[in-house]
Amino acid sequence: MATVLLIGGGGREHAIAWKLAQSPKVKHILLTPGNGVTVDDNMECVAVNVKDHEAVVSLCRDRSVALVVVGPEDPLADGLADSLRRAGVPCFGPSAAGARIEADKAYAKRLMEELRIPTAPFGVFTDADSAKEYIRGEPNRLVVKASGLAAGKGVVVAADAEEACRAVEDALLGGRFGEAGAKVVVEEKLQGEEVSVMAFTDGRHVAVMPPAQDHKRLLSGDRGPNTGGMGAVAPAPGALTAQQLSGLEQLVFQRLVDHWVTEGISYCGVLYAGLMVTATGPYVLEYNCRFGDPETEVLMPLLQSDLFDIVTACVEGRLCPIDVSWRTDAAAVDVVLVSAGYPGSYPKNLEITGLDAAAATGCRLFHAGTRRSEPAGSLLTSGGRVLNLVAVADSVAAARQMALQAAQLVQFEGKQYREDIAARALAR
Fold this sequence. Notes:
Layout: E1 2-8, H1 11-20, E2 26-33, E3 43-45, H2 53-62, E4 65-70, H3 73-77, H4 80-86, E5 91-92, H5 96-103, H6 105-115, E6 122-125, H7 128-137, E7 143-146, E8 155-157, H8 161-172, E9 184-187, E10 193-201, E11 206-208, E12 213-214, E13 217-219, E14 223-226, E15 231-234, H9 242-263, E16 269-278, E17 281-288, H10 295-299, H11 307-315, E18 331-338, H12 355-359, E19 364-367, E20 370-372, E21 379-381, E22 385-393, H13 396-409, H14 423-427
Parallel strand pairs: 1-2, 1-4, 2-3, 4-5
Antiparallel strand pairs: 6-9, 7-8, 7-9, 10-11, 10-16, 12-15, 13-14, 15-18, 16-17, 18-22, 19-22, 20-21
């Protein structure tokens, strides 16, 4: 039986750990940094600086770690997977060169253009005046993205050209996104429905997951600022036709993986495509180099196959014969509880109550921004996104009702959540 090290401490990582722990081949899961719940008989939080790659390698050797799974994008962009592989430690997560697909959006857009992967028309700028001139040149150039990593908050979808120009000034002149915003991508605003599709890959083959639908805006009705994700539904019914979904495997995933093979780039892990499904078909809005959050929280409960077997097959380059199966008789809905002030500044260390009552509804509680107080052990808030309340039922409507019921039962000061998660799916 194996010991697994899981890097990360959000709801995504709790969902991954929960699924890995179901494998009879996993003995123990080490989490760094973990959070307020990811500790039980076979899970343990450990303290290690993931920016210190030698320290991570030493931990793996000291604890006989058989596999490392990297959740967030920052360690991947920093080359942690490369350092682990050089040290002989198996790692599920792409090389820094592969992670560039998320860490450098200008590179990603140019690569999509080169490979003829459908994406919105765009321009790349480091000069604010040039970017504003580009915006004013056409009426629909309204999406401004920081090219670097900005924790999922580096995108402004403007209502008009003036707002888009202000977003450019904030990024390039005001330093709103720091170094991540020293270069911006300005692109055409597409009309349609957003959907997320991810795929496992061993660097040569891909296994596509069911589509999920994230809800990025803070407020119901898709209003307010963009966030890291306020909830999700999977599978996303009707957003993609069966023919479109089948075509994505080759057009959006395999084409990119094949290119990396020719370039000698190592990509083992999850490849995420954020799509806009328009009247003329799906377009790629962005690629991410890891599991999506909160999409992972709704997909892991639907995965029937052993997750440890899948990631091990990816690491060993033998994904092709592995059967990755999903529940087809159920839907999952995730309602995320967030702190007051999120995605801006927010208070911390607020007591959370009502978890037992929420769990009694049948929901799974995947913790994100939580921690345990010392020495009493009370559960406290520690982040913007606090808890994921995930319900699985035989219909989207039933799952949504369960998740919203659980959301009402959990209490902490300033709690916010959207009451319309999965409403678009229901409307279909």
